[in-house]
Specification:
This protein is mainly α. It has 4 helices and 4 strands, in the order ααββαββα. The protein has helices at 3-18, 23-75, 100-104, 125-129, and strands at 84-88, 95-99, 109-110, 117-118. The longest helix is centred in the middle third of the chain and has 53 residues, at 23-75.
Length: 130
């Protein structure tokens, strides 16, 4: 039983001991205590849900750590910079990196920061086509 539920039970006991002669006041007091009991019950359910979500989030963090470790092991902590082309987005000014497969794609390049299309020419690409 939670702290709030204990307090509501205490108030219920006090109300029983009062033996109010005014029936209207007694009904209002009982209604307030019942409402407080319902609120305490709802809060306990919310606490349980939060605990469940917290456990799920912890599990997700653990899985992400495993994935990060696997990626780090695969690349030995370093990525080959030759596989990426550095581009400064003309829209937001952020430096972004694209791999060669993305650049060769007909879909175009989208800046991951501002979601605008980036158009650029690869130096020496025109000379190779001739």
């Amino acid at each position: 039983m939670s702290f709030i539920s204990e307090k509501v039970a205490y108030l219920d006991g006090l109300a029983d001991g009062l033996q109010l002669k005014d029936e209207g006041t007694d009904k209002v007091l009982r209604g307030i205590i019942e409402t407080l009991g319902a609120i305490a019950e709802a809060l306990e359910e919310q606490d349980e849900s939060i605990d469940d979500l917290s456990d799920c989030i912890d599990g997700i963090y653990d899985e992400l750590d495993d994935i990060e470790t696997a990626i780090d092991e695969e690349y030995d902590g370093e990525m080959d910079e030759d596989d990426f082309i550095e581009v400064v987005c003309p829209h937001c000014g952020e430096t972004v990196y694209f791999d060669e497969d993305m650049i060769d794609s007909d879909d175009g390049l989208i800046c991951p920061n501002c979601n605008e299309t980036i158009e650029f020419e690869i130096p020496g690409a025109e000379e190779e086509e001739k």
